[in-house]
Amino acid sequence: MKTSLLFLLSFSIGFLLQAQQVSTIFNSASMQIDDAIIQDVQGNIYGSHYMGSNVYKITPSGTATIFKSGLNTPNGLAFDSQGNLYVADNIGNRVYKLDSAGNTIHFTNITSPSGVIKSINSDTMIITQFSGHGVRKLAPDGTLMPRFLFGFPMNGPVGLAYGADSSLYIGNFTDRKVYRWKYDSLKYIATVPGASNASLGFISEAHGLLYGTNFQSHQVYEINPNYTDSVRLIAGSTAGNTDGQLSVAKFNSPNGIYASKGGDSLLISDFTTGNIRMITGLVTGILQEKQISFNTNVYPNPSTNFLKVQSEELIRSIRIYSMIGKLVYHQEQLNVKSLELEHFLKGGNYLLSIFTDKGIETKKLIVFD
What we know:
This protein has 369 residues and is mainly beta. The protein is 0% helix and 51% strand. The strands form eight sheets. Strands 28, 29, 30, 31, 32 and 33 form a six-stranded antiparallel sheet that branches. Strands 24-3-27-26-25 form a five-stranded antiparallel sheet, with no helix packed on it.
């Protein structure tokens, strides 16, 4: 099947303009991604279907396939340095090590594994155990090491993230508390707000900040780990599937969360719908929402080797990005309302951004060979 992946990006034109948008980039009736989510170095997205038995793979061109089947509530995901994917199978009580084709290299029996992350300087994996309220290490050969954290204050730990200073952050699903583990010492960082029955899904790190999903409250939070309880709501309100600017966007039980390598976007899985959402414009600092719509025509779309762009506003520049965020074409300082492009791209899905004095409009572009 084909699913359009809409990667909205932040750009600089004279000054930094932030396209702080929420977009649905994966929506399938037959393939549900409701749990952990991760991206490999080629830009492929992998996601767990916790309420099912599969881990799915989505290529940058939008092709979605089953990467691994036959699991029992697949949960956390992590890559090692060789590109092998580790899958925490929660109720299945195993952690699988899979090669790049989805074949099992080996598995390790472990009670209630939930989150998994690669250690900073080795291929040793850090594993959280949900019902065992513990954290332990797993060697590359599958040898399970003793727990180095267990019991209070661990309370259904799931989320794991590394900070820029190599600190390990651990998020409790049950009480929404986040802790920092460094120099064999555990420190309380923050509690994500929520009702007594609310839960913290997963956590991720970008630009020195942590991001976490509030499962039952349908919200996404930012956490500054340099201060105690420095938590800020960045998106979400009541349950819904609304895309658009952060102030109006809605989520439906956001769960998995993964920051892009450049730290400018977040991938989020909606547990209830099985959709993947994306928040863009996460560069720390200016928080302006300049992504707008105006009367711009781009045709033919799909295209082959010719494209015409027309706008009611003066076009200052255009930029075209691949689905893994690579700038593949641009023209700057145009100052025109119409332009034609020939023989400009290979076949695939792209993102076309049109810059004007009024703002930025972004359109999905399909090119056939």
